[in-house]
Specification:
Elements: H1 2-8, H2 19-29, H3 33-54, H4 57-67, H5 69-77
Keywords: Membrane, Transmembrane, Transmembrane helix
Transmembrane segments: 36-53, 60-79
Amino acid sequence: MDELLAKATQGVDPDSPGAFFHIFVNLMNMIPWAQLFWWNVVFVAVGALLGWWRGRLMVGIVWALVLGPIGWIIVLLAPKSVKPPPLPR
C-alpha cells in the first residue's frame, strides 16, 4: 500500500489546491487502459456470438458490455427467442 501511495503522490505538494486532481491523474496513469479496452472488445464479441446463437443479438451485446462475462451467463439462461408466426393475409 505504501508503494501505491508513493507512486500516486510522486511530485505532488499535498498542500497545493490542485493536489487531489494531480493524485487522481497519477492513479489513472497506472491503469492499463489498452488491455482493458481489448478485453472489453473480446467480452462484447463473445456476448454477440452467444446472443446471435440464442436469437437475441442486441441483448447479448448489451449484457456483455455492461457486465462482461457475467452477462454471458444471463444470455445463456434467458429463453431462446422464438420467431412469431406469419400474419394471415
